Inverse folding.
């Protein structure tokens, strides 16, 4: 479904991604782990064009993504993105946040978009908060609304960029639960996370990034229990 | 007349100020940004009184058959849009980058982002400085009396010539201005409270 070929990216003289190639198949849950600064988030942001890439190519559903504004919008209609800092629209209620994308981009009539938004809010367990403003929701609730906002666009692929890193520890569980349910429902997911429990139990494949490269990848058991590269061994030793 | 001038200035200033604010923040054209900036420098860097003179005496010379109301309105709108444009530019740029990214990742076009996500938030931030500026433009309309346009101050002067009581007349004129500005300030703080929740 998603194929990244030889992607490189620099910020000034700093090379953050070096010739990265990665495939994500339909229905697969791929989790990217690695130290801060290893290029995980940048990789994710390059996929949906929030960051331009310097070289390499990105293929989605067997079509190469050409980076024109129109082509990027076509891609983004099919690829949801959830941010570390939620980035909900503060001037809108939870329901309006979720309904806005379909209304504006797909021209779904207001009533229809809102009933669909209500479904998505129920799915993340927040139907009763539909009229709340983001400022009155907890971090965990905001992040669940953000996931519902992504889902309302009917994405084929969801990207999660360290979505629990800005949350208080007691709120992480509720967000991971939503992601796990989503994975079980068959959604294709590419997720950057520091939650190793989630990576181990939910991922079909774990990708370890180090210094802008994919250093090792494989099923969770193999990556966590029989790491090959010294860097991965050190990383796992440090977090477990 | 002062009321009418204020209304025209507020409306015209907001419309053109919005255009200027958008020009100055448009990410795809340095030329648009430069035009906006140049306009601001010119109209903010010269006295309102002289702008009124130039439009009032200059437009007829250039062959435009404008009434006094039209001339002074154009001057006031030109002047106030420079300020309002700058207020809006600041507000637009103060919106968090995450708002742009979130709406971009929902496949919004630039104008959809602006209209649905950025401007609604930017306007809320703009309310206090906009009200402040509007209050000062009400007082600014008094300058048009100098070219003989009959608004509040000029009316006062005319009454003065009949009564010869400058202190009384001008004090009353001041009261009229205050009566215009004070409700506006009140309205401003009410809007603020309504639009900016305390969280």
């Amino acid at each position: 479904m998603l194929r990244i070929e030889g992607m490189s990216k620099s910020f000034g003289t700093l090379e953050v991604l070096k010739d990265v190639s990665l495939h994500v198949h339909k229905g697969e849950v791929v989790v990217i782990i690695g130290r801060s600064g290893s290029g995980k988030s940048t990789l994710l942001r390059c996929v949906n064009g929030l960051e331009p890439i310097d070289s390499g190519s990105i293929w989605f559903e067997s079509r190469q993504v050409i980076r024109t504004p129109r082509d990027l919008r076509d891609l983004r209609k099919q690829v949801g993105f959830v941010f570390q800092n939620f980035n909900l629209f503060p001037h809108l209620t939870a329901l309006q946040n979720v309904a806005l994308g379909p209304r504006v981009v797909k021209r779904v009539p207001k009533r229809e978009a809102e009933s669909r938004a209500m479904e998505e809010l129920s799915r993340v367990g927040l139907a009763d908060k539909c009229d709340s403003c983001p400022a009155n929701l907890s971090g965990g609730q905001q992040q669940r609304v953000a996931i519902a906002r992504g889902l309302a666009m009917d994405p084929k692929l969801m990207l999660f960029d360290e979505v629990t890193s800005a949350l208080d520890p007691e709120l992480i569980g509720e967000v991971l639960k939503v992601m796990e349910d989503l994975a079980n429902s068959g959604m294709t997911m590419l997720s950057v996370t520091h939650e190793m429990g989630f990576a181990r139990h939910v991922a079909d494949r774990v990708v370890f990034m180090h210094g802008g490269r994919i250093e090792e990848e494989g099923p969770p058991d193999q990556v966590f229990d029989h790491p090959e590269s010294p860097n991965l061994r050190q990383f796992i030793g440090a977090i477990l | 007349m002062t009321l009418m001038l204020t209304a025209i200035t507020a409306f015209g200033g907001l419309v053109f100020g919005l255009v200027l604010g958008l020009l100055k923040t448009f990410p795809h054209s340095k030329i648009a940004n430069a035009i906006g900036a140049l306009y601001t420098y010119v109209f903010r860097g010269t006295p309102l009184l002289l702008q009124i003179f130039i439009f009032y005496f200059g437009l007829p010379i250039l062959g435009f058959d404008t009434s006094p109301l039209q001339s002074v309105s154009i001057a006031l709108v030109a002047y106030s849009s420079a300020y309002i444009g700058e207020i809006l530019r600041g507000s637009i740029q103060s919106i968090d980058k995450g708002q742009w990214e979130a709406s971009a990742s929902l496949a919004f076009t630039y104008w959809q982002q602006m209209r649905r996500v950025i401007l609604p938030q930017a306007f809320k931030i703009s309310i206090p400085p906009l009200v402040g500026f509007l209050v000062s433009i009400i007082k600014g309309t008094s300058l048009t009396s100098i070219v003989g346009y009959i608004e509040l101050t000029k009316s006062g002067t005319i009454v003065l010539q009949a009564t010869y009581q400058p202190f009384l007349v001008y004090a009353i004129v001041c009261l009229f201005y205050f009566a215009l500005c004070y409700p506006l300030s009140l309205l401003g703080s009410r809007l603020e409270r309504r639009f900016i929740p305390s969280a």
In short: Chain B touches chain A at residues 96, 98-99, 101-109, 112, 116-117, 120-121, 124, 197, 199 (CB under 8 Å). The mean pLDDT of chain B is 90.
